[in-house]
Amino acid sequence: MLCGVAPPEPVFVYCLMLRECRCSPIFLRLPDVLQCTLIALDCTGGRMEIEPLALANVLLPLLRQFCIGDYGIALGGAHAKGVADAESDVDLYLFARRFVPSEERTRLCHDFSSSITGVVNWGDDDFFVQGGTDFYFEEQKIECWLRDSDYIANAIVECREGMIRRDFVTWTVMGFYNHCVLSDVSHMIPVDDPENLLAGWKEQVRDYPPLLRDAIIRTHLTAARFWPDNYHYQAAVQRGDLIYAMGIVQQVIHNLIQVVFALNHTYFTGDKKLGNALDHMAIAPLDFNERIDRLLLSGPGSAADFLIRQRDDLRLLVREVEGLVADH
User: Fold this and answer.
1) Are residues 134 and 73 in the same domain?
2) Cα 137 → chain centroid
3) Same-domain check for residues 56 and 199
4) 260 — alpha (psi -120 to 50), left (phi > 0) or beta?
């Protein structure tokens, strides 16, 4: 057993020794459906570091109890996208029509293992669309994102038909777009999919929908064009009104980024780590990432001087993206 938890099916091999030994990290290959999953047992630091896919399998007996009826469970987030770093948590996606209430999920966590601490639930139990149960397991931050499977299926249909929706929610800076669902589905790694729910979704989003591309470009290029020569933005620049002007600039940059993702037939991945993604776009303004940094970072001089330079750079960037759209 690992941390007092019985291994899930299929049979796993775990190391039972450890905490006090002084050996080098040990890597065990697990003979499961994930083929080359590894568990790293770091005896020198007093903590076992578990590879995310293996960790998902360790937690499967708990996660299954969260779901009511048909379900699917996947590894998502930075680890699924291949962009995880030392600060990344482990994101586990749970899909079902219904889930047990938050109080019951907390009880299940505590019953499952004494190594689970800091359980926090979010979202409403009634009229459920999405919610979560987050906790620490062996000092690793785990975020379980519970999502209504009907909502996911509908979002895929909408986006394939070129319909864009945005929900303004606290936990994402520019709002949550329905097409972010397609990004999540395309990147996620199914861990438990007994009804082939996740496999079906992944097949539907394998090719980037042309109608979605056109809708994103049309919507976000129109929004980006609105501000650069707008009277109220010009007045903010002249006044040195940093708070108002910076909000406008952030909006325009975000809209341009949406257009660039669509031009490259790439699903928008969300607000985080966009710089790395933009560096790999074949169709983008020259030095796009560096120019965004310059727009957002103030240099020497007054606020008014910075805002004037920022406005001029922003206008140029909008025009270049317009040109890319015309060419592609």
Assistant:
1) yes
2) 20
3) yes
4) alpha
Which CATH number does the domain housing residue 223 bear? 1.20.120
Contact 132, 122 (CB under 8 A): yes
Go through the chain and tell me how many residues it has.
Answer: 328
CB contact at 8 A, 265 and 306: no
Residue ending a domain, choose from 204, 223, 241? 204
d(CA 149, CA 153): 6
CATH of the domain at 98: 3.30.460.10
Q: Could you say which of 179, 204, 229 is where a domain stops?
A: 204
3-state secondary structure at position 215: helix
Nearest to 142 by CA among 235, 67, 79, 64: 79
Q: Which helix (H) or strand (E) holds 137?
A: strand 130-137
Same domain, 161 and 222: no
Helix, strand or coil for residue 27? strand
Q: Which amino acid is at 2?
A: L
- For 77-165, strand residue ranges (E) read 90-99, 116-122, 130-137, 140-148
Number of domains in the chain: 2
List the end-to-end C-alpha distance of the chain, in Å, as a whole number. 56
- Across the chain, which has 328 residues, the per-10-residue mean pLDDT values are 45 32 33 37 48 94 97 95 88 96 96 96 82 93 96 97 91 88 97 97 97 98 96 94 94 97 95 88 94 82 81 93 94
Burial letters for 65-89: b for 16+ Cβ neighbours within 10 Å, e otherwise?
bbbeeebbbbbbbbbbbeebeeebb
How buried is 307 (Cβ within 10 angstroms: 0-12 exposed, 13-18 middle, 19+ buried)? buried
To the nearest 10 degrees (0 to 180), the angle between helices 102-112 and 52-66 is 130
Q: Which two tokens stand for residue 54?
A: 């293996």
Position 209, amino acid: P
Q: How many CA atoms lie within 13 A of 249 on its CB side?
A: 29
Q: Which pLDDT value is given to residue 302? A: 72
Q: List the structure tokens of 60.
A: 């499967």
pTM of the model: 0.79
Is 7 among the domain residues?
A: no
The reply to whether 220 falls in a domain is: yes
**Which distant-in-sequence residues (6+ apart) come within 8 Å of 232 by Cβ?**
none
* Full residue range of the structural domain in which residue 305 is found: 210-327
